[in-house]
Amino acid sequence: MNDLLPALPLSSGPPASGFLSSDLLSSDFLSSDFLSETVRALPSIAGGLLVTLEATLLGAALALVVAFALGLAALSRRMLVRGASRAVVEFLRGTSLYVQLFWLFFALPMLGFRLEPLACGVLAFGLNYGAYGAEVVRGSIAAVPAAQTEAAIALGMGPGLRLRRVVLPQAYALMIPPFKNLLIQLLKATPLLSLVTVADLTFRIDQLRSATGGTAAAYLLLLLLYFGVAVLLSAGMNALERSAKARLGQEGGGA
Amino acid sequence: MWDMEAARAALPVVLSGFGVTLLATVLGFAVAVVAGLAVALVQRSAPRWIALPVRGLAAFVRSTPVMVQLFAVWILVPGLNALTIGVLVLGLHYATYLSEVYRAGIDAVPKGQWEACAALSLPRRRVWRAVILPQAVRNVLPSLGNYAVSLFKETPFLSVITVNEMVHEANSFGSTHFAYLESFTLAAVVFLLASWPTSLLVRRLEARLAH
User: Fold this and answer.
1) Among residues A127, A200, A242, B193, which one has the fewest Cβ atoms lying within 10 Å of its Cβ?
2) Cβ-nearest to B156 among A10, A12, A99
3) Domains of chain A
4) A16-46 residue pLDDT tens
């Protein structure tokens, strides 16, 4: 199993037998040993959490740019532009995020380009989720009633102004709920970073696990931290949706 | 640079891993389809003291990384082989997505169908099995297809618990022959070749069922 990943920093592999019964019983679960180690490791865990947040937010920012570029191209009047957008989206979605990240990390250096591991992650997340987001952008813009565009034309607005002042503000409110789902998906993909030597949250907690042997407690803590971040991110997106709807004079939002 | 010899040697290795990938996809999705329906029905019909914890647990599983779940179960549950654990964990993770899909599909069955069942005083089991579920499943078929493709593309996560699926094989070939470029490029191409036609098929199904 050592052939799995040359750079696998996680000390994987089931521990020796006999370990498990003690692990699930209270002897190590939340033992004072685990607690004191955790307190000592708090700065390291916080550092890992910051790396995870950084990767999530940078990845999401890149994904947003990619989503708008590909999504607007998919609505172009030129068939060539539409076709190119379609092909890029299908390529980015069809090749699996996991393979894309590993390709950037392991294969790209063989072509002479070496990216920082975190940059590989941000690039892979941004391109992959950007392709999913392109569908959201395209669909949301298409869902704005045609009468809105017609009214803007009747008022003599040019295409750029129409998009900026009439169509996008309405489409934007529709995009937020699906973008929220994609953001959570992106957060959940970030543990992949620990496989390419990035010291993210998963990496740090795994160190804690190795140091204490408190496997169950460490993983529970890890899952709870991810859950907490997911809850915060979705609360933020719900607030964004409410404000976008309020600006349009609509009520509610944030399911 | 690209080495044709290495690519030729990598291809059978990658393809042999693809068999495991397909197996994991089919089994994992079977778990997801069945367990997802169970979760949806429990949330809808079970007494509150069961339905609420199930809903909370499903939300928790849905919002936390499947990779961490795989690691946790693999290390904490002894005596099961890696593929079994991978299929169960990935399947249950997707079950928490599918339960929401089923819920929406069930909600979309017109109210008149329920009223007609009540008027005919059909037994509850028959209401579900003969009237509601067939229509609900038809509603959600395209979504199920999309999630199947999505699960397929997430099977590489199983490599972290040593399942020898395609990316695991590509990775080990890459490290022993120092041919990452060839092996990962081939893996990407196989994923693309398999998932593109499937998603086109799902889109066509979507268009057909829309009428």
Assistant:
1) B193
2) A99
3) 27-247 (1.10.3720.10)
4) 443 444 444 444 555 667 788 888 889 999 9
Nearest 5°: phi and psi at B50? -95, -45
Contacts of A189 in chain B (CB under 8 A): 65
ipTM, two decimals, is 0.91
Spatial CB neighbours of A13, under 8 Å, sequence gap ≥ 6:
A1
Higher pLDDT, B142 or A34: B142
Tokens of B78: 């002894």
pLDDT at B32: 98
A74: Cβ contacts below 8 Å, ≥ 6 apart: A82, A85, A86, A89, A134, A137, A138
pLDDT at A40: 84
Q: Alpha carbon of A190 to those of A47, A180, A199, B66, B96: distances in Å?
A: 15, 16, 11, 11, 20
**Dist CA B156 CA B175 (whole Å):** 17
Residues 102-131 of A with CB under 8 A from B: 102-103, 106-107, 110-111
Catalogue all structural domains in chain B, each as residue range(s) with its CATH number: 4-209 (1.10.3720.10)
The CA–CA distances, whole Å, from B107 to A68, B63, B135 equal: 32, 23, 11
Query: HSE of B156 in the Cβ direction (CA atoms, 13 Å)?
Result: 28
pLDDT value at residue A36: 84
Q: Cα(A144)–Cα(B200) distance, rounded to whole angstroms? A: 25
Helices (DSSP H) in B46-132: which residue ranges? 48-62, 66-76, 82-107, 111-119, 124-126
pLDDT tens sequence across B85-116: 999 999 999 999 999 999 999 999 999 999 99
| A223 interface with B at CB cutoff 8 Å | yes
d(CA B45, CA A141): 38
CA A71 – CA A175 distance, rounded (Å): 12
Task: Report the residue of chain B nearest A22, measured CA to CA.
Answer: B76
Asked if A101 has any chain B CB less than 8 Å from its own CB, the reply is no
Q: Is the pLDDT of residue A1 over 60?
A: no
